[in-house]
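Re-run with default settings, no changes from the original entry. Doing this only to confirm the output is reproducible before filing.
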Amino acid sequence: MSKREQYRLGMSAYNAGRYEKAIELLTPLVTMNSSPQGLLSRFYLGQAHYHLGVRLFETQKYQDATNHFQNAAGVNSNGGGIARFLVNCYVADGRYDMAVRELESMLGQDPGNAGLRIRLALAQYKQGSPLAALSTIREGIARQPDHAELQYQLGIMLAGEDEFAEAERCFEMTIACEPTHAGAYERLAQICAVTGRSDRALEYLEQAHALDPWNARIAFQLSVLGQGEVIGGRRERIAWRLPTAPGAAEPGEIDRLSELLASEPDFVSAFLALPESEVDEEVFSTLAATLERALENHPEYADLHFHCGAVYRRLGRRVDAIEHTEQAVEINPGYVNALIQLAELYSQTDQWAMGIERLEQAIEKGADYPDVHCLIGRLYQTGGQTGRARLAFERALSLNQNYRTAKEALASLPA
């Protein structure tokens, strides 16, 4: 079985709720590289482990459940939808990291920018300067004491230095500023567990899980603590709140992913090369939303319009696909791939004359390729222009005498 077929069958099994089979098929495909097949295999493998973990826990197979939660956390610890996953794999994977010196300079010009301050502190911490990182965050809190994320990041750094009492106060302050901050509840649970307050730890984990039910890392910890309470008779059950699908992507996740697509639009092409599967709607709807966001900031980028058109085509939204691809050609009249894509779209909507016009433009711009001549021949044939169709098929064969499609098309024409 080819990897493409294995991928397609794995996605089909996941979509049908056959999680054991999905795990069997997707596990061999998981790699740590950034190929779309590897990334999506990782994402849906994590989802399959998570679903199966919940099933097993609810049937009191606690150890098996914990193992699956642990596996889910190993491939996608933060949970969430495909946008968050791609952000974590790409955007957060060093692609947009800046040097400490550059971040210091930027923060000096905008000292109230909490996001910049956190990035600087994290860069300092990773470079082995925890005191500088703590100082950077504390200065930010002095400026913005009610900023939840500044409090949260300070708590994480303090907990890493075993300053549990102060870290706990920071996480409590995080929740006071932002009551739905699941991460703060999770961190409070960890501190309570370390300091011997297991009952309180479990309560915090349940709150974290209720706020972020797809987070496999939280689920794993909840399973480990919860099974002891259930087995010991101190709890009747653990309430798993499992939505039918991950929630919609957060605006911040789409924004960050759109930065990537604006700088590397060919990233989308690799996803489009994947075989069709039952998860296409989720994956490509996310990519479409991200491309639309990128175009809000860069409406002049022809590549973004072209790839947005290709994604809408994959989703079967031909009107949107044509609109964006036409914009790509308007921005760059010599965009051969966009002209060919338009012709293919028009051929699918019975607008053969428009398709011919676009292919003639593509050929004029240098697309003297066998497949282009074969396509224009098909369109001429659809329009009843048999003579022109014959010439187009003959031109395709003159460029590639072994082009079987053109041979068969030419043979199909009336004598």
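The mean pLDDT is 84. The longest helix spans residues 36-58.
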